[in-house]
Structures are given as structure tokens and as C-alpha cells.
Amino acid sequence: MRKVQFAQHVKIILLVGMVTVSGLCLVLVRGKAHANGGYPWSGAVCVSTGQTAGKCPNYEWSYGGKTKNPNTGNYYYRNCTDYVAWKLLSLGVSAAKISGLGSAGSWDNNAPSKGLSVTTSPSAGSVGVDERYGHVVYVESVSGSNITISEYNWGSTGSFGTRSGTMAQLGVSKFINFGLSGANNGSSVSGHGPTSVNNARFLGTDRLRVGQKMTANQYIESFNTTHVLMMQTDGNLVQYGDGFKVLWHTGTDGNPGAFAVFQTDGNLVVYAADGRPLWNSRPRYGADKVILQDDGHLVTYSSNMQPLWYTGVIVPNQLTYKGSDSLLSNQSTLWPNQFIRSKDGRYSLVMQSDGNLVLYAPGHHPIWHSHTYGSPGARFVVQGDGNIVVYSKYNQPLWSVRPQSNSARLVMQSDGNLVQYSTNGLPLWHTQTFGKL
Question: Does the pLDDT of residue 193 top 60, yes or no?
Fold first, then answer.
């Protein structure tokens, strides 16, 4: 195996040399700014002011003496189009589908010429178009009518930000499907993965340490159980979440036997079975670990927890861990967005904000629920009389199990089964989800 160094053997994912010219993103309303979202050219300098921060009057930032980015198809640096193009390329979308879409406000009109479908229904992995201001955004996740997006230059400052809301609140009316997660009725990327972890082996952690390897059919999982990073048998390193949708991948499928290594130089590398490097995150000296976080970020950290690299995946984490794998029969309660999880960290029982009590398998894949959605504010109670009940915010029972007078606790087991046990350890009720993935 040849260890990948910074200046050699690097597989370049972002293609260069395209000649199509894009327009600017003329957005006038300020949004919420965060870090740079992983976008590599956030340090580009405003041509008019000579500064990296603040508003840029002509929406032109310069990097290496150029205002247009040859790595993304000659879209303008730090504009919404350049960020979205970079995001799509980093997720494995071909450059041919991204180049030549023009100014942001015309992406939806030009998309069909690239064989791309345009709808009025958002899906994770699609690109939203705001035709009012001529602005494009990347759709990170969709939950009911609520959409979470990431974007650049919302506010004319050439900075990264995220917003959540309905289509009307965000001002986004059209969505372009590039074949990423959430498209085609929420299925995984075509040709890029399974619909659950199946028989893959859990490494029992949410991180890889320096020198650790992840071979085919192995995975790690975020602490809150909502995200999985799997080294697939086809050679693709894939992050799943939000109903086991593809959120990020290395684009290395077609290489059976490939494996991932977190090297001593802080570089996360996917190698082919014969030792050829297929993809890498580049060296990050001083790196100590790479963690799959609850918010979806895959982050390389130093020993003092300074972030050195991350994927830019954003899925707002509103869940709070109850601190156990069980609830005792003494009025234990799961409030909205609280969860318990199995001791091995693979399964979780979540009291959702929509009122539904849901049992999730790895990668946030639902395998059982109480059918009580549509009741926001509902809570789940394990009562002293042995009854387990989902109550509405008006204290009306929405779902329950027949009372068991000798009930002791309700346990989220590592085999995927949610079981109510008696005081002498006998099972009284269960979800019949043993072994489900």
C-alpha cells in the first residue's frame, strides 16, 4: 500500500478547465452565517474593497488573480452558484451536469438541457432556486414541510450560511434533481448503496483513530444513531442518514475490496484492494481522530479538539440523549426530541416532535413506530402501573400497551428489540423488531 502524501497520488475530484461562464448571485437579504461549510475558496478577496469580510459591491471576489473558479466550471468565487457547484462535485455529480447552467436564476430553465429534472417538490440533495433574487441553494434535509438549506452569498457578503423553513419562508420555488439522496421518492443514490446496514459489522464507535482501518462491510455510527459511515463492498465510502439516505460519499464505487485508512498524517484515504489511492481528504498534521458527529459533520480533530477538516454535511441535531438504554416503570418520560439508545449504540427510541414514537435502526432507518404522528408536543410515559403510553400535549392517550402490574423497565436492546420486562426479568411486551436493520 502506497501512503498518500499531499503532493502526489491524489485523486482530484473537482475537474478543471471548463470554459462555461456563469452569472452572479444578486441576493440582498442577510442570512445566518456560520463557518465556511468546507468551501475551499472562502478566503477569496473582494475586488472592490480588497477585503475578505463584509459586503462586496460588485459580487466579485478574486482568488489567485481570477474572479471565476476553473475548478467548478467558471462560476464566480464565493457566489451561490460556485458553492453549489463545488458541493455537487464533491458529492460525485459529474462536471458535465454542473457546467454551463448560467446565472443562478436560470439554473432551473437550463437544467433540462443537461438531462436534469426540475420539480416543485424539495428533496435532500436537490438544488433549490430562488427566482426572486436569482439565487441557488443546496437542500441538506427535508422533514415534512420544513426544509434545511446551505448556501453562499445570502446577504452579499460571500459567506456560508444555513436556513430552515417552508418553501414560502425560504423563497425557493423550484428544485433541480442531480441524482443525489432524497431524489426519486427518497431512495439512496442509484448504484451507490443499500437501504440499511444489513449484515455490515459495527465497529462500536463514532470515530476512527490514527492508524485505524475500515474494511469492506464495516461502519461507524454517530452517538445519536442518526448517521452511519460505511465502507461498502463496492468500494464506496458512504455516509447515510435521514431515513438511510446518502448524504455524502467518496465516489469510489466500482472498486470491490477497497478500504479506508485514517493515516498518521491526518489523511483519510480510500485505497483500492491493490493499494492504489482512490480518494483522500489531504493530510492534516496534528490530527488525532475523525468523528462522525450527531449533526452529520464528518470531522478531523486535533488532540485538543480543534477541527482540521470536515465534509460540510449539515443536518440540524435537535435530539437530546436521555442517558440510558432503558426507562423505569416509575413515570419515566421521553419528551419531544428526547431519545434512549441501545448499549451498543446502534438503535434508538425517539419521541419525535411530530408526536410519533419511533424506533430507529442504524442510519436513522425506522423499523417501528406508534403511528401517533400529527400530534406535536406529545410525550411518552412509562407509568407506575406498567402501562406505556404516548400522551398528547392535552394529556389524551394516543397509544398504549395493556398495563402490566409487575413491570419494572422498558429496554432498548442491542438486538433491535424494544422490550418491557417484569420485576423478575421476564419479557411482558416487545416491538417484535429483533434482528431488524
Answer: no
